[in-house]
Every structure is written in C-alpha cells, then in structure tokens.
Design goal:
Structural class: mainly alpha
Order of helices and strands: HHEHEHEHHEHHHHHHHEHHHHHH
Largest sheet: 5 strands, parallel
Number of helices: 19
Helix content: 40-55%
Strand content: 5-15%
Number of strands: 5
Distance between the termini: 29 Å
Strand order of the largest sheet: 3-2-1-4-5
Length: about 400
C-alpha cells in the first residue's frame, strides 16, 4: 500500500469561490486562446499522449466502464500491442452497495472485447465517502481542495505502485456536441424527435435570449442555502457561462481553457502526483484540445456519440461508442459519519452572510444530498478541526 510521499501543489479557490463551491469564470477572454499546434490529427494527438504514458510502466488506466475511460483503455491496449510495450493495467472501482454506480456489465464487455485478463479491481464499502479516512487524511495534509472528489481518490492511489496513471477526466467536456451538435441533430436527422428540435431551437437562440433564459433558470434553481449576495454571484456566473460561442472550435477552447476546467484538471493531477505517480489526462492535454479544435473546426462533428464514432471506431464496439447511460456516485459519498457531522455542526466556519447554516444542514440531511453541498461539508469539517481553507495558508 502506497502513502502520499510527494508535496503536491493544488490550485486554491478564492473566498467567494469557496462559498459558492466552484471556481468562477466570467466566460471572457478564453475563446481565442490556442494550445500548441503540432500538425497532428486529434486521434494522432491522443495516441502520442498515450504512448508517452505506456513508455513509463506500470501504466494504469482508471477504468470506470464509461465511454471516456473505455476509449482510452482500448486505444492504449491497441498501441501497446502495436509497439511491443507492456500492456496498461485497468484499475476499476466497484461499490457493491450502490447499484446506481454499477458499471460491471459495461466493464466486462470492454475487457472481453480487448482480451484483457488482468487488472486491479477495488471493492469499496465506505472508502470513498466524504469523511472517509482517505478524505480526512487529504484534508489534514492540504486543506479543502476543489472538486471534493479529488480528496477521495487517495483510496485508489494507495493501492497502486508508483507509475503512470491515465485518467479520462475532461472527456465529458471535450467530447461534446455543444450548440452546433444540437443544431446538427435538429436539421440533419431524418426524423428528429421533439427533444432534438427543442435543443436545436435553444442552441440557435441569440446571446441576449440565452442570457435571459440562464438568468431566469439560475435564479429559480440556486441552491437553497445561498443568501442573496451568493445568489447574485451564482446567477452572474450562470449567465456568463451561457455565453457560449456558436462555433464548435471556439466553444471548445473557451471551456477547456476556462478557470473551472484548469483548476479541476490541475487538482486531479496533483492528487495523483501526491502518491508518487505521473498523471496523464489525454482529454485535457493541450495537444489534444488544439488538434481536435482545428480538425473539427467551426461546425464540429456532431453530438457526443458522433465524436466517439469518429475518433475510436476501430478499438471499441459501437454499442459502447453510442451508449448514453451513466453511473451515479452520490450515494457512495454519504454515510453515518457524514450525517452525524451534519447534525452536530455548530454552523461556524462558513460565512453566514453568504450561506444559511440551517438550510445547508437540511440539505446535507436529505436522503440524496445536492452534489453542490459536498464541498461545503469539507469546508465545515476543516474549520471544525482547525484546518485553514484560505489560499495564503497553503502558499
């Protein structure tokens, strides 16, 4: 079992970001940013990143069974066999008591297709709860880090020998149809369904209408524990996020180089590095982002399924490339310890001008807590144990 031996540098949130439980971005100034131009196609760029990972064994691939991790594992196995490199090791986490998180059928389908008979399978009962020993140990080492899920991943990394760890993080954001994908579905399908037409109309809305709709939706959908100043900031950020360029390449760059995305990837990678392994996140690698933006261009390639079919048709069966179901892990984060802390919390440690402590406690104690409240549980727990959250305390 490995222990965290490396001092990792995490990206910190500002005070307002801590209370909103997310990095803030005004949505401006990133659409025209470009990563390194390599002349590679998107597929070639992904292969280049994976070959670098395979050349530094042991090479682990965090494999949930979803499309992102399945595509990376399948392509890594293909490349390893082509180049006579050691095969990557799939690392799978299973939660036997959380059926909504079960991806076993999809995992076995992919492994059988690839002819893999080895790997690491971790069965967790409570190891990835919000106040598990892995999470609280991470909080004691480096304080609250966003997103809160990175504090839970030590339960995986401590079971691996140091090596290279490939993760599919960023795939949901990079491999998306965006507004042009919705328009394609509405205009190109022979028999578009009502939802395709509705999404197409929404995608075609001008900026003023999109901002108005985002303001209305965010105002009515703000988390119940936010006070008026926080709601105003929440709505402002939602409106800023709604100003997505219509061009697929510009929208992709705007998202992948935004502050929320860069903080997310930086902290995922720091959590891996802390355990002495080298993190590899192909879908967030600048070479891949830029190659895909240049190749797909202003119109993109269609929806998420179309992107997977374009990039990985030779390494996975189409039923994997076109699946739309996803696992849900919220129930794996909450247990008796988390709810007991919520009941006994004195309300201190979180600015009451921005957060209503009674409403937040109520949100923690419902059967299926709002995911946005998870980070605030870490923030409150850290304060209770004298652990600072401010960026300057960890600089």
């Amino acid at each position: 079992m490995s222990t965290p031996t490396v001092h990792a540098t995490f990206e910190r949130l500002s005070r307002e970001e801590l209370l909103l439980a997310t990095p803030r971005s005004d949505g401006a100034g990133v659409a025209d940013v470009a990563g390194p131009a390599t002349g590679l196609t998107a597929r070639e760029a992904i292969e280049e990143v994976l070959l670098e990972a395979l050349a530094a064994p042991p090479c682990y691939v965090l494999f949930s069974g979803g499309r992102d991790s399945s595509a990376l594992l399948a392509l890594a196995v293909t490349l390893a066999r082509q180049h006579a490199l050691p095969l990557p090791v799939p690392v799978t986490v299973r939660h036997p008591h959380a059926p909504e998180a079960d991806e076993t059928w999809w995992q076995e389908l992919v492994l059988e297709h690839l002819g893999l008979r080895h790997g690491v399978v971790l069965e967790f009962q409570h190891e990835q709860r919000l106040l598990s020993d892995a999470a609280t140990g991470a909080l004691r080492r480096h304080g609250p880090v966003w997103p809160e899920a990175v504090q839970l991943h030590g339960a995986i990394y401590r079971d691996l020998d140091p090596g290279t760890i490939v993760t599919g993080e960023g795939g949901d954001m990079l491999l998306s149809g965006r507004r042009t994908g919705a328009l394609r579905d509405a205009l190109a399908l022979r028999r578009p369904r009502r939802r395709h037409l509705r999404r197409g109309l929404q995608a075609a809305q001008p900026g003023v209408a999109r901002r108005r709709a985002a303001r209305t939706h965010a105002g009515s959908g703000a988390p119940s524990w936010l006070r008026p100043p926080a709601v105003a900031a929440y709505v402002h950020d939602a409106v800023s996020a709604s100003v997505e360029p219509l061009r697929w390449d510009a929208a992709t760059r705007a998202l992948m180089y935004s502050r929320p995305m860069t903080v997310f990837i930086a902290n995922v990678e720091a959590a891996i590095a802390e355990y002495g392994s080298r993190p590899v996140t192909p879908f967030a690698d600048g070479r891949v982002v830029e190659a895909l933006a240049r190749e797909a261009g202003p119109l993109g390639w269609g929806n998420r399924t179309a992107l997977f079919r374009r990039l990985f048709p030779d390494v996975l069966p189409d039923r994997v490339l076109s699946r739309t179901s996803k696992a849900w892990f919220n129930s794996t984060r909450w247990g008796p310890e988390e709810r007991e802390f919520a009941r006994l919390w004195d309300g201190f440690g979180i600015d009451p001008e921005w957060v209503d402590p009674d409403e937040l406690r109520a949100a923690w104690l419902v059967a299926d807590p709002h995911p946005g409240a998870d980070f605030l549980l870490h923030l409150a727990w850290a304060h209770t144990h004298g652990i600072p959250a401010e960026p300057e305390a960890w600089s």
